[in-house]
Amino acid sequence: MDEAALIQSARTGDLNAFNRLVLEYQDMAFNLAARMLNDEDAAADVTQVAFLSAYRSLDSFRGGSFRAWVMRMVSNACYDELRRRKRRPTISLEPVNEDDEEIESPAWLADDAPSPEDQMERLELDHALQNCLSGLPEEFRSVVLMVDVEGLDYQEVSVSIGKPLGTVKSRLARARLKMRDCLSQYRELLPSVFRLDDEVTQ
User: Fold this and answer.
1) What is the gyration radius of the CA atoms in the chain, in angstroms?
2) For the chain, which end, N or C, has fewer CB atoms within 10 Å of the first or last residue's CB respectively?
3) How does DSSP classify residue 21?
C-alpha cells in the first residue's frame, strides 16, 4: 500500500483512497476504542466519528506516522465519550447478546478455540485483565493499550496523545506497575512465567 499516495488522493476528495486507509487501520482503531470504553457499540460509534474527523482534517496532516495520527483521533474521541459518561453516569452492565444472555468473553481477546478447561481459565483471566485495565486512569490505559497491545512505538504514541516521549515512557512504566499490582490479586490465574518468583517456588 502506497500510503502517501492514498493520503494525497484522499485530500483531493477521492473517497476510494480514503476507504483503503480506513480498511488498513479500522481494526486497530476499533480495538483501541473497545478497550478504552469497554463497550463495543460505543467503540463502533467512536471509531466512525474518529475516521470522519480524520477525513475532514486531512489537510492538517503534516506527514510522519499516519497510523499514530489516526490513533490520536480515536483516543480523543474516546476521551470525549468518557467525559460525556461522567456528565451522565449510567449503571454499568455486562454486555449481552441478541438473546439477552451475558457475554462472558471480552471481544478484544482472540479466540484460539482452546479446550473447555483452558477456555474457562482464559475467561477468568479475561475478566481479571479487563478489570485491571478498567481500573487504570484513562491516560495510563491508553498508553499501555497502544504500546503493549497494539504495538505502536513510543514516538507514535507520543504523537497520538500529544505528549513528550518522556511522558509516554513514564506513563507506560506506571501503568505496567499498576497492572502488575492489580493482577497479583489473580495470581492463580496467571501462567507460572508471569507469577512472582517466590510464589512459583512455593
Assistant:
1) 19
2) C
3) H
Contacts of 171 (CB under 8 A, 6+ apart): 139, 140, 143, 144, 163
* Total-model pTM: 0.64
Residue-range domain boundaries for the chain? 1-89, 106-202
Which residues does 144 contact at the CB level (< 8 Å), separation at least 6? 133, 136, 171, 172, 175, 176, 179
Are residues 33 and 77 in contact, defined by beta-carbon separation less than 8 angstroms?
Answer: yes
pLDDT single digits (tens) 36-75: 888 899 999 999 999 999 999 998 888 888 999 999 999 9
Q: 1-89: which CATH topology?
A: Rna Polymerase Sigma Factor; Chain: A (1.10.1740)
72 with 32: CB under 8 angstroms?
A: no
**Grid cell digits, residue 68:** 499514530
For residue 152, which of 76, 64, 82, 78 has the smallest C-alpha distance? 64
Q: Which of 138, 139, 156 is nearest to 147 (CA)?
A: 156
CA-nearest of 198, 78, 185 to 139 is 78
Task: Identify the three-state secondary structure at position 96.
Answer: strand
